[in-house]
Amino acid sequence: MSMRSICIHTCMVALCASLCAGASCAGNKENQNVDKAYFNGKIITMDPGAPLVEALATRGGLVILTGGSNEVLAECGPRCEKIDLEGRTIIPGLIDAHAHFLGYAKGLERLDLVGTESLEDVVTKVSRYAASRERGSWIVGRGWDQNDWPEKIYPHRRELDRAAPRNPVYLSRVCGHAAYANSEALRLAGIGRDTPDPPGGRIMKGRDGEPTGILLDEAMDLVSDIIPGPSREDKKKLLVDAAHACLAVGLVGVHEMGISGETVSIYRELFDSGELPLRITGYFSGSDEGFDSLLTAGPLVGYADNHLSVTGVKFFSDGSLGARSAALIDDYSDDPGNRGLLVTEPESLYASVKRCHEAGFRTAIHAIGDRANRIVLDVLEKVLSGDADGSGRHRIEHAQILAPEDIPRFAALGVIPSMQFIHCTSDMPWVGSRVGPDRIAGAYAWRSLLDSGCRIPGGSDFPVESINPFLGIYAAVTRRDLDGDPPDGWFGGQCLTVEEAVRAFTLDAAYASGEEELRGSLVPGKLADFVILAEDIMSIPHDAIPDIKPVATVLGGEIVYSAADFAGGSTK
Prior knowledge:
Blueprint lengths: L2 H24 L9 E4 L2 E3 L7 E2 L1 E5 L2 E6 L1 H5 L7 E4 L4 E4 L1 E6 L1 H7 L3 E2 L6 H12 L8 E6 L12 H7 L5 E5 L4 E4 L1 H7 L11 E5 L5 E7 L3 H4 L7 H17 L2 E9 L1 H12 L6 E7 L5 H7 L2 E3 H4 L1 E9 L29 H13 L3 E6 L2 H15 L10 E4 L8 H7 L2 E3 L2 H7 L3 H9 L6 H6 L17 H10 L19 H7 L2 H6 L17 E4 L18 E4 L2 E5 L7 E2 L1
Parallel strand pairs: 1-6, 2-7, 8-15, 9-10, 10-11, 15-16, 16-18, 18-19, 19-20, 20-21
Antiparallel strand pairs: 1-4, 2-3, 4-5, 6-25, 7-22, 11-12, 12-14, 13-14, 22-23, 23-24
Helix pairs in contact: 3-8, 4-5, 12-13, 15-18
């Protein structure tokens, strides 16, 4: 933790200690030390010292007491709100350790292509959408995946030209590392047969030398940079709507990857006005135009009562497996001669990471292929070689394909493998064809990483995947799809236990951002962020986990979401 973070936490613990001391010493039911008491439940604290309790009490946004129902209720004065859980389960508030929150918010008003089963499905959706749009206005969407189509090949722009002849069209692939554009969009971006590939990207071209409409990685920016975005006020409204969607699935916070200085200023305004009910831990984009000034300003910690911190920087090493742009040591098994792309050259990545480390920022580096992961580990080893404790809480995002000899290097270097468990179950139908039978042993190797001594924060990468964290927990525990296939799990030896999966979205997510003394478990002195469930997630059948729907979400001691049927047994 930074010195500022330590100071904030020390003050909070001191406040809590004084409150608890007054309560426990007096033993007086008339005391005023408790705002709310939740009792008669099963509370999973993620605290090794008291992993399961019946009740907890909050005051001033903090947990101040946990224990038996009688013990906690004894500290309630006449103004204390007592909430009978009626046997329900509480878990710490869930944290998505890798998300694109603003991207999800923007997507609320864009064309949703997730689940399309063919190119014709995409074309039909675009055609219907275009019919309601003004001539010349942009059509923007996301979510197509050619791996789900009968013909698992990239489409051609002529199909989009047919669907929307009067409008420029730009559709991001589900992974965010490829885009599908029509001829009008390419024309507006100035992309033609003579346009060279930008560094770290590729403009796919046909045998005739003309662009096909598929853009990979950095080439996507040639079009996306000219698309008009929502206004500042529109962004605010969309972000508030997105926050309420997160609360409804049990998320109390996200680690947002790749944000800009402008986005941080929007968050400040929303938190200053009390409009955004979510905790944001931001990682600046390493390609932000204001990168130098952001580093000079240093990390932002604990803004607006610990609602906003910006303590890291996000970089890219390679692309994605789905787009065949993840950097592999050897050729793709299904695409001989292709070993993917390095979005950032190792020397440049080292220089940038070193600057961030020296400025007190953690880094989160996207690496999917085994070559990219090895390069990033080499870079971090070099950066950390002169560090006193050998660790800066730097992260590798995704870490999907690892050479077996590189797995123990994560724990040895103190590098955090940040995992999005649902990527495994989304990718498992086709990833074997990408990497072949030998490299698959290092694919989504969660158990191997845990056993080597790592802590794994859990995320979703939404809007690439669903915002629902229980789908990620299910994927981590079963490595099966929602139909229950394969029955024993895809390479089931790499599964996590339910407790480990919940910890990934709570305490280990907090650890990854240096906030484990502040949040992630229900311990006196920590933030009172938690989720109330009708089901006991630790004991229900694994196949029932995806159906879990929170009955209430509590942020800083306040119920910020409740299902229509949640009365909570509240009494005064």
